[in-house]
Amino acid sequence: MHSRQQHKPLDFLRGSIDKVILIKVKKNRLFRAKLKGYDEHLNLFLEEATQIFEYQDDDGNIREENENLGRIVIRGDNIIFLNLAQ
Amino acid sequence: MHSRQQHKPLDFLRGSIDKVILIKVKKNRLFRAKLKGYDEHLNLFLEEATQIFEYQDDDGNIREENENLGRIVIRGDNIIFLNLAQ
Amino acid sequence: MHSRQQHKPLDFLRGSIDKVILIKVKKNRLFRAKLKGYDEHLNLFLEEATQIFEYQDDDGNIREENENLGRIVIRGDNIIFLNLAQ
Amino acid sequence: MHSRQQHKPLDFLRGSIDKVILIKVKKNRLFRAKLKGYDEHLNLFLEEATQIFEYQDDDGNIREENENLGRIVIRGDNIIFLNLAQ
Amino acid sequence: MHSRQQHKPLDFLRGSIDKVILIKVKKNRLFRAKLKGYDEHLNLFLEEATQIFEYQDDDGNIREENENLGRIVIRGDNIIFLNLAQ
Amino acid sequence: MHSRQQHKPLDFLRGSIDKVILIKVKKNRLFRAKLKGYDEHLNLFLEEATQIFEYQDDDGNIREENENLGRIVIRGDNIIFLNLAQ
Amino acid sequence: MHSRQQHKPLDFLRGSIDKVILIKVKKNRLFRAKLKGYDEHLNLFLEEATQIFEYQDDDGNIREENENLGRIVIRGDNIIFLNLAQ
Fold this sequence. Notes:
7 copies of one chain form a homoheptamer. Chain A is mainly beta. Chain A has one helix at 2-6, and strands at residues 20-25, 29-38, 44-56, 62-74, 79-83. The first copy, chain A, has a 5-stranded antiparallel sheet, with no helix packed on it. Chains A and G meet through strand 2 and strand 4 of A and strand 5 of G. Strand 5 of chain D pairs antiparallel with strand 4 of chain E, so a sheet runs across the interface.
């Protein structure tokens, strides 16, 4: 029981430092980037960040366009969930 | 009366650690995953997570598509409710 | 006057523990469930929960569909009001 | 000047305890009820509560329908304003 | 410099106590009322309050309708700005 | 390095006291006014305030209408950005 | 491990002081400016700020228009992410 109480969700981010994660943000924003830093608000500092734009084409298929952003800071309150490195 | 006051809602999550729960998130997002960690903001750490997309097909039927996500951290303020393991 | 100041709204929830209440949630969500626990944020732990879906049929009548959910935790900031056991 | 500084807005609610007030809530919700308790977040405990539904009929007239709710707790952050007993 | 730092915005409300102010609220709500009390959240207690409904008529002109409300408490987080007595 | 850490954003407002600034507010609201006071929430006290209404005319051109407001208090959480006196 | 825990996201902003950054703000607002100050809420003080308006023209192409703003203070809670100087 003791060890369970120590498993706070944000502690699990430590193992993803320097690894590539996916960041799902409100308003359908999606980022892929290397995690360099985070805090208790889920503010993130990321390197080699790419924003992935998903949209439907005229045939209804989901399409992707990428934009390279480099180093970014995301304000935590915009984040829905993080997909950690496996 | 005394024991009732101890039954804080988040304490009930402890019994669902390592079990599969459903997580209903704003904007009609739905996840099924194994609960590994949580905190007082309802931030969650989840493993073997699947996002379930519900939509209406042309005949008005509710349909589901699943996407395997692996390990994710959901920011608590997006959550509407959790459906715990029975 | 003294007794009035003690009647904080959330204190009234204590008398509804183990009783069935209605929970009205943002985005027209409605739940009926047995109250098992709550905290100062109005986070709720509920058993035998049912979500009630209200919608208009083609004739403009309000219709209901129910979904059994079992044990759920609702995050308090989604709640508009609770209808307590009489 | 001294007495003015003591007139905090929520202190004025004390005089409406056990009286009927109107509660205007976001998303055009309106309640009429007897005030039984409140706190600093404007969480309210109410008895003999009625929700008043206002809508436009086909001729553009404002119409009302009432629903008896009994005892309710409204989460304060949904409230726009209270109309106190005269 | 010293006197400037003392001019906190809410301190300026003190001079409008017992005077008529305009209160602009989210979702295009507008009130005219006598200010009787306020706190640091901008919660307001008002007397002789009137809600002013602005709408466009069929010719595109801005029109006003007033509703007398008497004594009201507005929850501060709904407020955009106050127009103080001159 | 030392001096940089002292340059908190709100400290820069001190130099704009008694000067005319532009205040961009959510929902496309824009104000021009003389800054008289502020606090750490960016609540502002302003004099000689004018609200500037921007809209598109039938030809798609951006048009402006001004409304003199006099002395106003803006609640800080509505503000997007301030354009300081040059 | 020790050094990682020190890498809070906002600490990385220190290296961008006096450099040009991009600021992505809710409601599709975009700014390019020289960073002069920031705080823990991500409130920013910026100089030589330009707001970049992105829109689709009649042919569906993304177009840009710039507006010079000079010195601005952005309230942090509007910010989605910052793109730091490389």
